[in-house]
Amino acid sequence: MRTLWDALNEIEDLRGRKGRQYALRAVLGISLAAMLAGANDLLGIFRWGRRLKPEALRLFGIETGKAPCHATYHYFFQSLDADALSRTLGSFALKQGKAEHIAIDGKTLRGSRRLDEKAVHVLSAFATELGAVIGDLTVAPRQSRGEISPRLSRNRRSNPIRTRSPPRSSC
Q1: Contact 140/165 with Cβ under 8 angstroms?
Q2: Count of H helices and E strands in the chain?
Q3: N or C: which end of the chain has fewer CB within 10 A?
Q4: Residue 2 half-sphere exposure toward CB, CA atoms < 13 A
């Protein structure tokens, strides 16, 4: 059975030779574990990783027993191919079970607007049975469902996704 650890090894490492003191899946593994433990920023991930004993770090493939520093996480996430990570995690989640009900939701990413550019808008597909996001697309903020639906269908031929307007909420 393929594990999440195995799946992380499939992501291409785009860092330069000098930036590879720690394996990609080691840094990602620590980051994911830290976020599951409640860390929500680089400093939290760094602090969580620094608390690990050398034996625990070896389980993440860090033989030196020394955790990555804060700057390592900063440069690591700058060079990480987020689309490849998203695809890998989505395909891993899909292989864990059947996704019968898929919820579609769009969000404008806060802080993504730069100078005269528009903010980034992401449309995500969430498999409710799996409790996981299985895919996402970057779309124009006001793009219509008619324009987006064919792109979603191409990504999921075996289980077509139907879109509809969500109910309005006051939140």
Answers
A1: no
A2: 7, 3
A3: C
A4: 14
Residue 68 has which token pair? 């990555």
Stated length of the chain: 171
The pLDDT value given to residue 83: 82
Residue type, 15: R
Q: Can you tell me the distance from the alpha carbon of 80 to that of 114, in angstroms, rounded to the nearest whole number? A: 20
- Which tokens sit at 50? 């620094």
In the prediction, which pLDDT does 70 show? 93
Q: Give the C-alpha separation, 92 to 45, whole Å.
A: 23
Contacting residues for 67 by C-beta, under 8 A, at least 6 apart: 30, 46, 49, 50, 52, 57
Q: Which amino acid would we find at residue 47?
A: R
CB contact burial 83-95 (16+ within 10 A = b; e otherwise): eebbbbbbebbbe
Provide the β-strand partners of residue 127.
Answer: 102, 132
For residues 57 and 67, the answer to whether their CB atoms sit within 8 Å is yes
